[in-house]
Amino acid sequence: MKAVVLGGTKGMGRALARCIAERGDEICLLGRDEAELEKQARDLEVRGAGGPVAIESCDLRDPASFGPALDRAHAALEGFDTVIVTAGVMGGDQPSLEVDDEAVEDLLRVNFSNTIQFCEEARRRLLAAGGGNLCVFSSVAGDRARKPVILYGATKAGLSYYLEGLDHKFRSRGLRVTTVKPGFVKTGMTAGLSPPPFAGEPRPVAERVLRAIDRGRPVVYAPSIWRFIMLVIRMLPRAVMRRIGF
Q: What CATH number corresponds to the domain at position 163?
């Protein structure tokens, strides 16, 4: 695997990049914090990455950076076959978002429109090379509208819809799209939040995601129990969803 990872310096992206490095694959990290990119690149090299780990500047808030960053990653790796997107924002809790228009705008732009623009840049390059893997982190929050995550969940629902459409249209041309739907995972993004039952740890979740990429699975829930939890949640009547706080 020659993988380009956007968001590989923190949380799930870092855990997934480490799993990739430890089996000897090649990696290029994309991000906006050059010092942190450099630090993580050296860590991945020590862990066994299959060559020097390249780093390139790319900011999910700046669509103008997407194409050039992917082109530089292509040059550094002499081609890539996998693009992984773990970057995103929570934007704050639902009550905070309801009174903060700027935070809402940032949440919608970063998690939805800009992520899709980045994926479009990646899609074009992967298809031009004959195909490959596009793995993007969405969330179980996009499976059913729920009171605590209305705005965040809306961005993830739209992203999941887009990724499913990509898989329908382009799998026959060699593009394997994997939509990752994590439940609660103990990372920096969820720091300060009370973990619910079945909260996941980054390493086991990353291992599950990497297996899904290798197998070309279109959707993966991680931890796996969230597939069944969300199946039940999706079946609940609307009247019940209005009454409960989940």
A: 3.40.50.720
